[in-house]
Amino acid sequence: MRVDLYQIAIQFIAAKIPFWPRTHAEDLAPRGYYPFGITYPIRFHTTLQQQKMQSFTIAAAALSAIASIPAVSAHGFVQQVTTGGQTYAGASPNWFYTPNNLPDQAGWMAYNQDNGFVEPEAYGSVNISCHEGAKPGNQYIPVKAGDTMDLQWNTWPSSHKGPITAYMARCNGDCTQLQDASSLDWFKIEETGLIDPSSNTWAADKLIEDDFTWTHTIPSNLAAGNFVLRHEIIALHSAGQENGAQNYPMCFNVKVSGSGNAWPCNDGADCRHGDKLYTKKEAGIEFNIYSNPTSYPIPGPKIFSSIASSAKRFARSFIA
Questions:
Q1: What is the largest CA-CA distance in the chain?
Q2: 104, 196, 202, 267: most buried, per Cβ within 10 A?
Q3: Displacement of CA 105 from its chain's centroid (Å)
Q4: Are residue 19 and residue 163 in the same domain, yes or no?
């Protein structure tokens, strides 16, 4: 039986790289946008000799990608959320493989099948809000103002040290009907960075220690309504160099109930569109974690003052 490496490679890349079929064949993908950091410049309508060369190139790329799977799969995603004694589906990227049977979930569905990240060069795009090309889930997680939400990742690599932050944004309507996150104004509700400088312990280390779980608290004075919760880990293991930070945002539709009356964006909070959350040169984005730091400036807007007193999970965040 003849094995056609060209067809195998095409099928593999199409399955593993959701952007590839929709991208111009001659475009080069920037690092962080495609699985494995590999780019695939492909040209059709070429000579037979060129096609043979392309077959070899694509097959080699596929084999290289396959060899890289263990390292890439070490990154993770939020697999479930628990609040009020109930557990809800998280934001698994596996929705992509069943497009005709999308899951019922509050987690936003993104093109992060590689468990990849959003790089600083993409901070000016909508992708930084809820990940690559994210669309809202069709459900809500019900939560009371003041309640906690436990977000459990499927895994997280110990080398990927960094802060964990949480934002919320009011939907001004039905979150499930949003086209993307571009219209949302985010306000920060929590942040934790460097927990213990003496042991170089970061928020991400604590997440691993707690069975890959992180707990956020919904502000107790938040007015009832439909919101998107944005949970994010920023991995800093390569952040000592330009464009080296790695953002892993995950979003969830939440329906907040309660008697609170705070609308942070109307009450003086530093609310920002996603493309204004960070700049690629700010101190907490370009940061060397291997220089024995004693403090860390968590990037992004400040926590809204009326909720700041309860917004840090650890008292010793060592925020500069």
A1: 71
A2: 202
A3: 17
A4: no
Q: How confident is the model at residue 284 (pLDDT cuts 50, 70, 90)?
A: very high
**320 domain residue, yes or no:** no
- 209 pLDDT tier (thresholds 50, 70, 90): very high
**pTM here?**
0.77
Instruction: Provide the number of structural domains found in the chain.
Output: 2
| pLDDT at res. 304 | 81
Contact between 13 and 62 (Cβ < 8 Å): yes
Q: Read off the tokens for 54.
A: 């392309």
Residue 172, Ramachandran bin (φ over 0: left; ψ between -120 and 50: alpha; else beta): left
